[in-house]
Amino acid sequence: MLSAELLEEGQHLMAVCNSCRYCEGFCAVWQSMETRTVFEEKDLNYLSNLCHNCSECYYSCQYSPPHEFAINPPKTFAKLRVYTYELYAWPGPMAKAFHRNGLKVTLLTVLILVAVMTSASFLLGGQLFMTVHDGNFYKIVPHSVMSIAFAVVGSFSALALLIGFLRFWRNVGESYSTLASPGALATTAKDIFTLVNLDNGGDGCSYPQENSSESLKWFHHATFYGFLSCLIATTLGAFDYFALGQHGPPAFTSLPVIFGTVGGVGLIVGPIGLWIMMQRRNEEIVDKSQNGMDLSFIVLLVAISITGLLLLVLRQSAAMGSLVLIHLSFVMTLFLTMPYGRFVHGIYRSGALLKWSLERSRQAKSKASA
Amino acid sequence: MDDLSGFDVLVVGGGNAGLAAALSAREGGAKVLLLESAPQWFRAGNSRHTRDLRCMHDAPTKVMSGAYTEDEFYKDVLSVTQGKTNEHLARMTIRASTECTEWMGSYGVRFQKALGGTLQLGRTNAFFLGGGKAMMNAYYDAAYRVGVRVVYNAEVVALRVVDGEFQSLTALIDGKSTTVVATAVVVSSGGFESNLEWLKEAWGPMADNFLIRGTPYNKGKVLKCLLDLGMESISDAREGHMVAIDGRSPKFDGGIVTRLDCVSLGIVVNNKGERFYDEGEDFWPKRYAIWGRLVAEQPDQVGYCFIDSKAMGKFMPTLFPPFKAETIGELAQALKLPAEQVVETIKAYNDAVQPGTFDHETLDDCKTTGLKPAKTHWALKIDQPPFYAYPLRPGITFTYLGLMVNDRATVLMKGGTRSKNIFAAGEIMAGNVLGMGYAAGIGVTIGTVFGRIAGREAAMQALNPQAASLATPEVAIHAVR
Question: B182 with B4: CB under 8 angstroms?
Fold first, then answer.
């Protein structure tokens, strides 16, 4: 349940902001706020996820602390967001994971997975440290084992994320039928792909510090598109295996390797950039309780990319076997923690953007009919 | 505090006018020191509460729609000031306003796109993206970039002026008394609206019940010093911008969110439960400007606006929720008003309301008959529960008593002689253009225009006094244009 204290903080924020409205030119949050007069929990849940944490409003605010109104939109929204992550988590008891997914837990998970896989490999008579001259890591972990394990974990994560999204959608007052709105979906995709809310017409935003900067947008782009590129690489790899019957390691010039390499570089540059910005950001506007969640997500992405790229380079050496296990353990941990960590921001923020797009077209319609 | 000597131009007060002056003096090649009395986070005086500026333009611009000609602008000035203006200075300000947004933009100030803005002022006014504090943040960044030296927590307490020539001033910097010398000075330190003693001197005991909407740092000390040193004054200590705001607002610095604009949708009573003025007399700008004074004249300087559920949602959301009850009597009791009288006042009003077609966008035909005072527009019966009420108090936004200047922003002394090296910009001289009344965004316009002139003139005075003394007023204006 949303604590009375945080509900009150959110409502106070909205009361001040909606009677001021100076920030209306900054982003969707304020434009959407202006269409409301009452702010219940569901409105706060929606608006907090619509916030992209650019922080321009904070520095522009006449009422930020030490002013007695003590308005701090990025921080209040951040606290509300993590509350919504817990609220929508599936299965329910996993909500607690949002506060226990720090670096230690993540690394422990990786270690356990490495240990389990190594033991399994030895028990099954696999020769982990043998040099596999053709670089075929399916000799270490058979393709069937890999596909089944990841299909199970991946499906579970996908299901958990989907249920979370649907819970969000209902909670903020939308019905499932509104999801099928091609126009709104297209606008939302554009908003996501361009991060228009992080970039005031090319002016950047006030993160990590007050000075206008576009770093947040570009490092996020590197991460997001890197992730997407890796997804494409995996899909293409699966296609090559199943449809084309290419069971050996893909060539360096093959599409899966190219997409994987580009994605891997993006997933090193992006998250490290975001990490550096975390070190430089203004602590006043941060909900520090979420640092662990952010850090573990960053570490996982970077570790997956580094081990993945190493694997590509060293796939014909004796290190390949252990690298495969380590790489797969990191990937498996990412899949396991995805529904209970920073990754979900993408799900709910996309949902909030979709709702905002729908709201705009409804307003346009009601204006036209009036 | 390290060395504060060797500056050509000293700017006192770091609001919009002060920063415009500092940047403009830098453009003129001067070494500039700016003293700001507030701490960094609360810097920029009332400019941090502003949102837009009024600009003349003959065709749509990136940030304003339509056209707003010199004559229309001047007509608006005449109308709000009821003629209490200096036509030469007003027209000069209006003409120079055409360049303001571009000049501000060159220092990083961002504007909302045309047609934005909640107040339907998109034609006459340009709105800062993120409001006045964002505008000032951009200005300060620019000032640091071009090498203006800024000192915060620097309150000027005394000036040394000999024969109209500024020599030095004393400032308390972080509480420590420091003497600062410079060749020319620009005073842009605002009015005296947060100086409670001075307000009381001007208004009498009723001033105790005034709320100050803006910064607590505008004490008017520099203004007082200069008036005491023989500078000519303009306007009057009781002139300024006073509006009726939510009575629950903080004493200082409540800013825009203290606004209440439901007066025209209901009726207003004093604490005896009696009406005292036509709530439907006029539209927002005028209504906004007069109701502060109307409430100030009532006992204990309070008013209570009563509306019913029909009015809800028809005015800007308020910071504090309204008082609410199912009957007028209960509502009056909750406000500790004489319930019987309030009930009777509202009954008399309801009985006097004539049928009409309500239209909040025009001066409609909904009015009362036989009621004193009448409500001449937007008069609807207050009969649909639940009923709501907001307490009102006078909120001072700024004061107009100031320094008389010429069109080169030079401060004039009693008898009309020009000061040699004292220039003024912003609220401290706004009374030259606005003897009374107010039009949204005009304060920032005056501050920007005179700030630029003052900075340019001060730099010229400091670096090239001979040329400065030869320059004609027209040259001064063209230098800015």
Answer: no
Q: Answer whether residue B300 shows pLDDT above 50.
A: yes
Which residue on chain A is closest to B260 by alpha carbon?
A: A19
Residues 6+ positions from B23 with CB-CB distance below 8 Å? B107, B139, B142, B143, B146, B148, B455
**Alpha-carbon dihedral sign for residues A227, A229, A232, A234:** negative
- Inter-chain touch A62–B313, beta carbons under 8 Å: no
Q: What's at A216, amino acid-wise?
A: L
Q: Which of A63, A64, A203 sits opposite B110 (nearest CB)?
A: A203
Q: Determine contact, residues A102/A296, Cβ cutoff 8 Å.
A: yes
Contact A171, A353 (CB under 8 A): no
Measured between alpha carbons, how far is residue A249 from residues A91, A205, A304, B5 in Å?
Answer: 37, 43, 18, 74
CB-based contact A193:A225 (threshold 8 Å): no
pLDDT of residue B477: 44
DSSP state of B157: E
Cross-chain residue pair A68–B250, CB shorter than 8 Å: yes
Contacts of B391 (CB under 8 A, 6+ apart): B246, B247, B248, B302, B303, B304, B323, B335
A62 touches chain B (CB under 8 A): yes
DSSP 3-state assignment of A126? coil
A38: contact with B, CB 8 A cutoff? no
Q: Do residues B124 and B54 lie in contact, with contact meaning Cβ atoms separated by under 8 Å? A: yes
Query: A284 CB near a chain B CB, below 8 Å?
Result: no
Report how far residue B218's alpha carbon sits from residue A93's, in angstroms, rounded to the nearest whole number: 56
Q: How far apart are CA B281 and CA B266, in angstroms?
A: 12
Task: For residue A3, give both structure tokens.
Answer: 């604590």
* pLDDT computed for residue A126 by the predictor: 66
- The answer to whether A44 and A81 are in contact (CB under 8 A) is no
Question: What are the φ/ψ torsions at residue A60 (nearest 5 degrees)?
Answer: -85, -5
Distance between CA atoms of A59 and B386, rounded to whole angstroms? 39
Q: Residue B74 corresponds to which amino acid? A: Y
Q: CA of A18, closest CA in chain B: separation in Å?
A: 6
Q: In the structure encoding, which two tokens stand for residue A153, read together?
A: 């974990």
Show the low-confidence residues of chain A (pLDDT under 50): none
SS3 A174: coil
Residue type, B230: G
What is the predicted pLDDT for the residue at A4?
95
Closest chain A CA to residue B47: A62
Beta strands B176-187 and B165-173, pairing class: antiparallel
Biggest alpha carbon distance in chain A?
75
Are B160 and B168 in contact, with CB atoms under 8 Å apart? Answer: yes
The packing angle between helices A4-20 and A41-50, to 10°, is 70
CB atoms within 10 A of CB B312: 16
Q: Which helix (H) or strand (E) holds A207?
A: none
Give chain B's contact residues with A (Cβ, < 8 Å): 41-42, 48-49, 51, 110, 112-113, 116, 118, 127-134, 137, 141, 250, 253, 255-257, 259, 313, 316-321
A221-A223-A229-A234 Cα dihedral, nearest 10 degrees: -160
Interface A-B: count of C-beta contacts within 8 A: 77
Q: What is the mean pLDDT of chain B?
A: 93
pLDDT score of A184: 96
Two structure tokens written together for B195: 């100086």
- How far apart are alpha carbons B462 and B242 in whole angstroms? 38
**Distance of alpha carbon B203 from alpha carbon B3, whole angstroms:** 42
Q: Which two tokens stand for residue A238?
A: 């699966």
Contacts with B156 (C-beta within 8 Å, 6 or more apart), sequence order: B12, B35, B37, B169, B170, B171, B189, B221, B222, B225
Burial of residue B119 (number of CB atoms within 10 Å: 0-12, 13-18, 19+): middle
Q: What is the pTM of this model?
A: 0.94
* Contact check, Cβ <8 Å, A25/B132: no
